[in-house]
Amino acid sequence: MNRLGFLIARTLRDEGALQRLSAPQSAVLGDLAGKRIALVGNARALADTRHGAQIDAADLVIRINRAPIPSAESHGSRTDWLALAVRLSEADRTRLAPTRVLWMSPKRKRLDWRTATSPGFYLHPLADYQALKARLGAPPTTGAMMIDLIARSDMARLELYGFDFFASLSLSGRRTADQVPHDFKGESEWVHKLMLADRRIARH
């Protein structure tokens, strides 16, 4: 597909055409198999920790959206995969240099050509988004979608960093919980139940 074809498919919401740009979900799940994964959220409280070395020691480090890294001591420095629901500036793309970009948002109109043609690009299926939305009773965050995806893989371990469900707000913006469409209490309870059911998952 060329750029014009992409723009037409995006405008017409031709999901089948857009999905042809994506790595199969089975391939993404396969790449997670056997890995110790650090999923790094953007909670401001993470900046007050010293988890950086633990994060960088993971087999795979996945960050979210613009992924601010105020210090390597708290956040680590590696970014292997980047899960997006926003457009990424060239400065952030260069800074993070992910080897795979995952577009998690159902808002296909935000998806840009550079992201859609990046190596290993993955487009999260709308059906998966809708299923998690129904389970949570609210639009899921990018982090929740990634947790759901990773939990379905044969990964060895999933360590969550920077997930306090907006208790300390976000490093990537100034909005309050009332200004975003997510149910953070519901997501917190869902993750807690998930951790009880799957001992491979831990939150720091």
Structure description:
- This protein is an alpha/beta fold and 204 residues long.
- It has helices at residues 3-11, 15-19, 25-32, 52-56, 72-75, 90-96, 113-116, 126-136, 142-151, 184-197, and strands at residues 36-40, 60-64, 81-84, 100-103, 122-123, 157-161, 201-203.
- Helices cover 38% and strands 14% of the residues.
- It has a seven-stranded parallel sheet.
- Strand 1 (36-40), helix 4 and strand 2 form a beta-alpha-beta unit.
- The mean pLDDT is 94.
Strand content: 5-15%
Large-scale geometry:
globular
Provide the CATH architecture.
Alpha-Beta Complex
CATH class descriptor name = Alpha Beta
Radius of gyration: 16 Å
CATH topology: sialyltransferase cstii, chain A
Oligomer: single chain
Major sheet details: 7 strands, parallel
Give the averaged pLDDT, no decimals: 94
Order of helices and strands: HHHEHEHEHEHEHHEHE
Please work out how many helical segments DSSP would assign: 10
Topology:
Layout: H1 3-11, H2 15-19, H3 25-32, E1 36-40, H4 52-56, E2 60-64, H5 72-75, E3 81-84, H6 90-96, E4 100-103, H7 113-116, E5 122-123, H8 126-136, H9 142-151, E6 157-161, H10 184-197, E7 201-203
Q: What are the salient characteristics of this protein?
A:
204 residues; sialyltransferase cstii, chain A; alpha/beta; seven-stranded parallel sheet; glycosyltransferase
The gist of it:
The chain contains ten helices and seven strands.
